């Protein structure tokens, strides 16, 4: 018990939000009479929140560096509009339009990153201007009207599923993927534990380590079993998984990731240590622009249309996901995994409150309260450690 308490205290942000997510899911499972965790609703949760989770991955890097980006919703809308013009009006191949749209997002990120990193205008001001600018450009490009429909292949980004083999009502490919992911996770954890012991780092007890492996294995295979019971693994879930793995690796195992954390922790100290702070800031915003473009493409594919109102409040949901997931408002603290957990908390809240029939007024109020409590919890823990 002492080991469990010590482990929890050392990872209170991460484990606290995981526990909160589980509690919220169980609460709404009861309140909705079992609707929340039905296979079709779990799949809908993934599809409905995928574009916010993509934004949260990029936003957590921005917040770690001590900045904020208010323009991502407008960028997503603008990129969706540009993609619609290329695919629907100009009849360009979907793959070419997607590449061009990602380049547009990267260029927008570079534009904003230049003003923030090199001209030293606060990110709040630059991205607030970007929010207004690109929302206006979206309306100009679309001329106030929606453009649709997109090609079928493009729509499958958000509505398609991996090919599966049905057996007794279950998708075998989904089940196999769950088993392979479990084996991959166990292999990585064993290798990491062996490496830590080799270099003399402290590791958790063998009992706790085995418990962790068992819990993750059960949750992973239960999740893929639920997906297999409906339509299988959504294409967008594969994209999300790749983004989570890549960005987690970059932030935890590369020099670039360490520089991002160093910049957010203390910019002057990072500069004196050899970190090219302006360059890091610039590329963080280029990355944010690219992921905003990805989010815009996902949303446009799901909606099967580009609309002037697309992306509204996306930035607020992404920022809330990061703070709920443990990112610090003062910078230097946060994880990709935490941002995903925070995004899932927001997604489950939205979905659960809709299922029980709560109005949008109550939903907004409750989400605001959850965000406030999450930040207050972060500040309380920080003050407690400093005392």
Automatic annotation (TrEMBL):
Membrane topology label: Multi-pass membrane protein
Subcellular location: Cell membrane
Transmembrane segments annotated in the record for this chain: 12-36, 70-88, 94-114, 121-142, 165-187, 208-227, 233-250, 282-303, 318-349
Naturally occurring in which organism (per UniProt): Paenibacillus tundrae
Membrane listed as a keyword: yes
InterPro entries xref list: ABC_transp_permease (IPR001851)
UniProt function note: Part of the binding-protein-dependent transport system for D-xylose. Probably responsible for the translocation of the substrate across the membrane.
Keywords: Cell inner membrane, Cell membrane, Membrane, Sugar transport, Transmembrane, Transmembrane helix, Transport
Protein name: Xylose transport system permease protein XylH
Keyword Transport: yes
Main localisation: membrane
